[in-house]
Amino acid sequence: MMTLDVDAVRAFVTIADLQSFTRAAEALGSTQGAISVKLKRLEERLDHRLIERTPRQVRLSAQGAVFLESARDFLCAHDRAIAALSSSRRHFALGIAAHVAGPEVPTLLARLNAHDPGLTIEVQLDTSRALLDAFDRGELDAAIIRREDDRRDGEVLGPEHFGWFAAPQFEHRQGEPLRLAALSPVCGVRDISTQALDAAGIAWTEVFLGGGSSVVTAAVSAGLAVSAFSCRLAPAGSVEVSQRFGLPPLPSSEIVLHSTLTDAKSREALRTLACAFREHRASSS
């Protein structure tokens, strides 16, 4: 009966997730040469090429794409079996920016739990600025935020694009200030939207402010105002109205994972978190 080496399978999944031998080696605390050897042994064991590698690209082969989900299941079963032998529970404090949290969150938490059933996950939702401050104070083990300044550390999980959204029935009368619904004054999305309007010389007035994302979403859905949203998180039924009303383009940002954890098990949990986020975005794009 064929048996598989756990480390070799983990190397394959990490390469597939990060699309890089170098980054995979860093994530696993190994070297690029060792990762390559493990992959080669696994491919020889399965008698299939799993990864296609060129000077510019690392991607799954057809056989690798078929094997990937089974490989994930194999690793999850292994990790659950190991975790079951430990009576100690570990604690993980994770901050997720409220304006980043979306349909990915259940996937992230489910993947973390499957990866490490002995992990107690404490999730905190707040603005990116508040979470970054809490992270700097050591109150959070990791934080997923939207980049709002020139801080360069952290792992980029993906781009974040913004647009102007309103209900299809919303009307903006020419010559009147744009009716704007916005989050609190410390919200970065409010900053970029009002700055863009000011730079374009478009008059605006806030008719809903600081009531939380649910209030802003309700105001937009009811046709009472326009608001800037991440294109991932725009209210259901709303439409992008920048061309319709001549509104200025909004600059894109990035979603970033910050962490200072260094132990191997926590680093693996963070890699699982990052991969789950990327996978969900890719499947829903």
UniProtKB/TrEMBL annotation:
First and last residue of the signal peptide: none
Domain HTH lysR-type: 4-61
Domain of life according to the entry: Bacteria
Keyword terms of this UniProt record: DNA-binding, Transcription, Transcription regulation
GO molecular function: DNA binding; DNA-binding transcription factor activity
Family stated for the protein in its record: Belongs to the LysR transcriptional regulatory family.
Protein name (Swiss-Prot/TrEMBL): LysR family transcriptional regulator
